[in-house]
TrEMBL record:
InterPro entries: Bact_Solute-Bind_Prot2 (IPR050555), MglB-like_PBP1 (IPR044085), Peripla_BP_I (IPR028082), SBP_2_dom (IPR025997). Its main location: other. Keywords: Calcium, Metal-binding, Periplasm, Signal, Sugar transport, Transport. The ABC transporter complex is composed of one ATP-binding protein (MglA), two transmembrane proteins (MglC) and a solute-binding protein (MglB). It is found in: Cell envelope. This is D-galactose/methyl-galactoside binding periplasmic protein MglB. SUPFAM superfamilies: Periplasmic binding protein-like I (SSF53822). Residues 52-325 form the Periplasmic binding protein domain. It comes from the Bacteria. It comes from Defluviitalea saccharophila. Residues 1-21 form the signal peptide. PROSITE patterns: PROKAR_LIPOPROTEIN.
């Protein structure tokens, strides 16, 4: 079964663990700590596949749940995974890394809680003589500067998502002059930012507005605050801003779709999306829930942050590294000067929803 089809089955079934692949079965066991899980691919005989330790900064992050499923499905017949939920706690993640090393993992795949912790994690891996693949959250100074020559990164170009979001917004704004409700020729907007200090959040916040203005659109910021990538926090912020600014808000910019989902809930409760009452909202990630909102006309667009390929690339590099091979052997990926594999972003609107649906295995 192809990876994208397997993900499709998982998404429809609402499963995140205990994957069953064509001709291969997996089993999942939970450690007494409740934070580590081992998925063993039994298609290969014992000793044929490496043990790889994986941490996810928190399991209930919308986007990372899909990336985690991609890693698990890509591991079928290729690796045994020791999975960990770091619960958004860097000290917990540090302890999990120590435990995985003690258990004899042959490589680490780390979705950092704090991007600044990369050198400390790299030091642990270096001392143990095992390679490490960081993914999704990148060390701000580049993975080539973490102090270890067996450390790589899989993710995206953070600035690219903000630029693409800005281009999407500028195009939509030009096509809908009625969105300038007060007719002053300016875009009055509110911004929901991701985690403070996160490279993606910083870049998306800066580049989206800079790109809109570069397209000749004057902007005015009414409010900007972190929603920590979280839907419930996004809902709370939008409720607060509606009370303060009401219909003066002409655009809602979200660093991710998770927060955008919360924004939409707040807007629906305030009577938007009924009759002529509309508020344009854009996000990043193109998660399936956001794609449905675009179909329903409740969200203008998003930017595809491809979890299938990020998870697949992470697993492929980790397996190669664990086996002592060139990390790119047998793959289609390329490394840049910072030792990073960059999975490209794509603007998603109602016109090309099929691109995102394909990436999430929905077609």
């Amino acid at each position: 079964m192809k990876v994208k089809k397997l993900l499709s089955v998982l998404l429809m079934a609402g499963m995140v663990m205990g994957i069953t692949a064509c001709g291969s079965q997996t089993k999942t066991t939970t450690e007494t700590t409740g934070t580590a899980q081992t998925t063993e691919a039994t298609e290969a005989s014992a000793g044929d596949i490496p043990l790889i330790g994986v941490t996810i900064y928190k399991y209930d992050d919308n986007f990372m749940s899909y990336t985690r499923m991609s890693i698990e499905s890509a591991a079928q017949g290729k690796a045994e995974l020791l999975m960990n939920d770091s619960q958004n706690d860097q000290s917990k993640q540090n302890d999990q890394v120590d435990t995985m090393i003690a258990k004899g993992v042959k490589a680490l795949a780390i979705n950092l809680v704090d991007p600044g912790a990369a050198p400390a994690i790299a030091d642990k891996a270096k001392a143990a003589g095992i390679p490490v693949i960081f993914f999704n959250k990148e060390y701000p100074d580049g993975t080539n500067n973490v102090g270890y020559d067996k450390a790589w990164f899989v993710g995206t170009n953070s600035a690219e998502s903000g630029i693409i979001q800005g281009e999407l917004v500028a195009k939509a704004w030009a096509a809908h002059p009625e969105w300038d409700k007060n007719g002053d020729g300016k875009m009055q907007y509110v911004m929901l930012m991701g985690e403070p200090g996160h490279p993606d959040a910083e870049a998306r916040t800066k580049e989206s507005v800079a790109t809109i203005e570069a397209k000749g659109i004057t902007t005015e910021e009414l409010a900007k605050q972190t929603g920590m990538w979280d839907a419930s926090k996004g809902k709370e912020l939008m409720e607060t801003w509606l009370a303060a600014h009401g219909d003066k808000i002409e655009m809602v910019l979200c660093n991710n779709d998770g927060m955008a989902l919360g924004v939409i809930e707040a807007l629906k409760a305030a009577g938007y999306f009924e009759g002529d009452k509309f508020m344009p909202v854009v996000g990043v990630d193109a998660i399936p829930e956001a794609l449905e909102l675009i179909k329903e006309g409740k969200m203008v667009g998003t930017v595809l942050n491809d979890p299938l390929n990020q998870g697949k690339a992470t697993l492929e590099l980790a397996v190669n590294a664990a086996l002592g091979k060139d990390v790119l052997e047998g793959t289609s990926w390329e490394l840049d000067e910072t030792l990073a594999v960059r999975v490209p972003y794509v603007a998603i609107t109602e016109e090309n929803l099929d691109v995102a649906e394909e990436a999430y295995g929905m077609k």
